[in-house]
Amino acid sequence: MPSDVRLIDPFDPDPELIRHAGDLIRSGKLVAIPTETVYGLGANAFDPTAAERIYAAKGRPSTNPLIVHVADQSVVRRVAGSWPETAARLATAFWPGPLTMVVPRGSRVPDAVTAGQSTVAIRCPNHPVARAVIAAAGVPVAAPSANRSGGLSPTTAAHVVASLGSAVDLVLDAGPCHGGLESTVIDLTRPVPRLLRPGLVRIGMLEAIVGRVEVGTHAASEDEVQASPGMLARHYAPATRLEIAESDAEADALVGIYSRAGIRVVRWKAVGTAEEVAKTLYANLHTLDESGYDRIIATLPPDSEEWHAVRDRLTRAAAEK
Ligand code: TXA
Ligand code: MG
């Protein structure tokens, strides 16, 4: 049976539908929810069976922990074991918003959510539908991106349905997500905070609040990959093979070589501001994926802080399987 997909107005969400979504989550079902970054696959974060259904629906390795979504900072005490002062300051600055903080785990959060780790990732999203559903559920909501593991994150409800099919009990369709890339992830359990995944909250913005932040987005060891599997070199990838060019000249050369060899090749290049490109990157790659090309040649945008997240996702999409 196909999932139940319901349109919902992000500016004036239907209270009845919100209540229905909250009831489903509380009773252990999976609901795909729009957030300001990408669509999430939500389940009751206090229910280990519901969390396991997320892993099954995504084909996600049980070693990759989930982000717990809260309606506001007051709920954090039900999820975190302790709340570092750096977390409180960052929450004041950036929540609700696209920032996920890794902190010591509280005892109510099951192993199924944290992949057995002693830490938990928490985020308070800034999308009226996400916030309303979490509030209606009355429990924190574990939600990874609503796609099959390893693939492109969904920025529309159609992407969710194409990737997860009938594995979702309800899909709330509020139109395209305006952020377009997954949240920034920062680990606050270390002496110096560590950036695990770049996103729309950039490192300079974090450093303005908590001082120096280490960049740890490329795992230095196997242990680190286990601690945050989003650090895996290959992630966020389209099905079509994607290759990186460092410049337009290199992209031209690659296109020439492949075209002469009869390989159907298409180019992708950043056009617009970093925010504009982040918003449409996954939608562009989803479209190219469906267009029957053999290869995507993506020209990397400049190596500057504002482009950090877009470069990170493209580089991971290009990594060998
Ligand atoms: O924008 C987002 O964050 C979206 C929306 C739905 O909120 N969610 C999302 O979730 O991107 P997911 O599961 O696709 O990515 C979660 C990332 C992974 O890289 C995971 O390894 C990392 O967060 N993570 C989760 N818990 C962690 C923990 N305790 N320690 C370190 N990394 C953690
Ligand atoms: Mg994901």
Task: Give a description of the structure.
- This protein has 321 residues and is of the alpha/beta class.
- The chain is 34% helix and 18% strand.
- It has eleven helices and 14 strands.
- The chain has helices at 15-26, 48-58, 85-94, 111-114, 128-137, 157-164, 203-210, 222-227, 248-260, 274-289, 308-318, and strands at 4-7, 31-33, 40-44, 67-69, 99-104, 119-123, 141-142, 170-173, 184-187, 194-197, 214-215, 241-245, 265-269, 295-299.
- An eleven-stranded mixed β-sheet has the order 1-8-2-3-7-4-6-5-9-10-11, sandwiched between helices. Strands 12-14-13 form a three-stranded parallel β-sheet, with helices on both faces.
- β13 (265-269), α10 and β14 (295-299) form a beta-alpha-beta unit.
- It binds threonylcarbamoyladenylate and magnesium ion (MG).
- Threonylcarbamoyladenylate (TXA) is lined by residues 35, 37-38, 40, 64-67, 98, 100, 102, 114, 117, 119-121, 123, 125, 143-145, 182-183, 185, 196-197, 227-230.
Short key terms for the protein model shown above:
321 residues, alpha/beta, 14 strands, binds magnesium ion, 11-stranded mixed sheet, 3-stranded parallel sheet, binds threonylcarbamoyladenylate
Low-confidence stretches: none
Q: Strands across the major sheet, in which order?
A: 1-8-2-3-7-4-6-5-9-10-11
Bound molecules: threonylcarbamoyladenylate, magnesium ion
Total beta-strand segments: 14
The shape, in one word, is: globular
Put simply, the count of helices is: 11
**What's the N-to-C terminus distance?**
32 Å
Helix content: 25-40%
Largest sheet, in brief, is: 11 strands, mixed
What structural class do the secondary elements suggest? alpha/beta
Helix/strand order, N-terminal first: EHEEHEHEHEHEHEEEHEHEHEHEH
Beta fraction of the residues?
15-25%
The overall average pLDDT, rounded, is: 94
In angstroms, what is the radius of gyration? Answer: 19 Å
